[in-house]
Amino acid sequence: MNMIFMLIFLSLSLKAEVLTLEKAVEIAKKRSPVILMAKKEWEKARFQKGEARSYFFPVISLSGNYTYLSEIPEMKSSYIDTGIDFTNNNYLYFKGIKEVRTPFGFENNYNWKLCFYYPIFSWGKIRNGYNIVSLKEKISYEDYVKKEKEIIAEVKKAFFGVLFLKKIVDISKESVDLLKEHLEVTERLFKEGKVSDYDVSRIKVQLVIAETKLIKAENDYVMAKKGLLNLLDLKDEGDWEIEGELKFEKKEFNLEDLKRRAIENRSEMKIVDKTLDILKRNLSLAYAENRPTISLFGSYVYQKPFYFENIWKKTWNVGATLDFPIFNGFRDFSKAKQIKSEIEKIKTLKSSLKSKIKLEVENAYLKIEEAKKRIEAQMENVEVARENYEIAKERYELGLMSDIEVRDAQFALTQAETEFYKAIFDYRTAIIELEKAVGE
User: Fold this and answer.
1) 365: CB partners within 8 A, 6+ apart
2) Angle at the Cα of 357 (from 356 to 359), degrees rounded to 5?
3) H or E stretch including 201?
């Protein structure tokens, strides 16, 4: 009994995990190195924004120190010591020369100091600096969104590629089965003397070719599946069963609306707009280089000794500084010219990018419309080809049709099914490209 439960447990544990399109997208978001690195860059930019925000607040510092002096500087001085003898007519007499030592300090010295510094007016330098870092954080976020959408599009294409190759494997298996069935009929007709051994031999050759194509189709499917798992960083995590259906879901699109949405949504456009904003802020900073700045400063000190008294004493001071650059060799003028030139360059890039995005949208849209027409045409063609094959097979068994005509009908059916699913694959891929081009 225990052995049975163990076998059941092993069979369940070895069962391949199911991978759907939705699950593949979620795994890509969590495990793709490209997305994770872009997300870390965005997080880094957010922390840099927090650092830039700190310049709006005063800088406050507290320091303390203790110093022990092994030798204290002294000033030596001498004086003549005299006295008065009141018993002898107030006689002034000489006692001697005495030495006086005056220390300049104390052995134990303590000092605590609280300081602050606060720029109250900087001609917009701090504000523009913060806005620039904030815009860079938004650019980093848009780059993260852009990379995430690119990886998701890549994953979706790879997923549908696997589904398409799985269909090719099924079509190839069907082709082999039809040829085997045709070979059995032909061998029976040969025994009846209705066909020659040459007909049997030709079908055997075609069967070997079909089996070879099946082997190739299966290898292509296995490699495509491995490519998908590698893209998702799942290559070393057991077997996965790809679950999904390559089917046609008709959608209608408005080209002009798609172009408008693409210009609004694409991260590239948002990055260019924010880059222009950064350059304009940099231009303001360049003009502010020769403008004055005013700052406040102050300190609170608690110390012992205080000058020549060995006592604890509190003192404080406040002040203001004015920094007014007079001449910097026209550096601000030259920097402003550079920034203006860069602004014009980015504006040209923006116009070019708009045209490129519109072209990408239109190209994806035309691919969808083309694939849609191919699907509708091949859908009917598959049915006709299958009917033709069934008719040819029946007529061949009655001796009313040649072997070549049957194989032509079978080849037409295989070709029609392949083209049908290829059109569906192209349609789904084109929709993915359109979503990427629109930025959705």
Assistant:
1) 253, 255, 258, 434
2) 65
3) helix 197-231
Each residue's pLDDT tens digit, 76-135: 777 676 666 666 665 665 666 777 777 778 889 999 999 999 998 888 888 888 999 999
CA angle 64, 68, 70 (to 5 degrees): 160
The more confident residue out of 117 and 193 is 117
Q: Which residues of 65-104 are buried (b: 16+ CB within 10 A; e: fewer)?
A: eeeeeeeeeeeeeeeeeeeeeeeeeeeeeeeeeeeeeeee
Percent of the chain past pLDDT 70, that is, above it, reads 92
CA distance 51 to 44: 11
- Number of Cβ within 10 Å of residue 126's Cβ equals 16
CA nearest 426: which of 141, 163, 108, 147? Answer: 163
What predicted TM-score, i.e. pTM, was given to this entire model? 0.78
Q: Specify the DSSP class assigned to residue 318.
A: E
Tokens at 411, concatenated: 């080849």
CB 160 within 8 A of CB 231: no
228 backbone dihedrals φ, ψ, rounded to 5° = -65, -45
Residue 324, judged by CB atoms within 10 A of its CB (0-12, 13-18, 19+), counts as exposed
pLDDT at 11 over 50: no
CB 20 within 8 A of CB 243: yes
Q: Cβ of 279: how many Cβ atoms within 10 Å?
A: 21
Is 17-58+122-292+330-438 CATH 1.20.1600.10? yes
- Lowest mean pLDDT, pick from 75-89, 206-220, 400-414: 75-89
Cβ–Cβ under 8 Å, residues 419 and 380: no
E strands in 122-156: none
Inform me whether the pLDDT recorded for 210 exceeds 80. Answer: yes
State the Cα–Cα distance between residues 112 and 229, nearest whole angstrom.
63
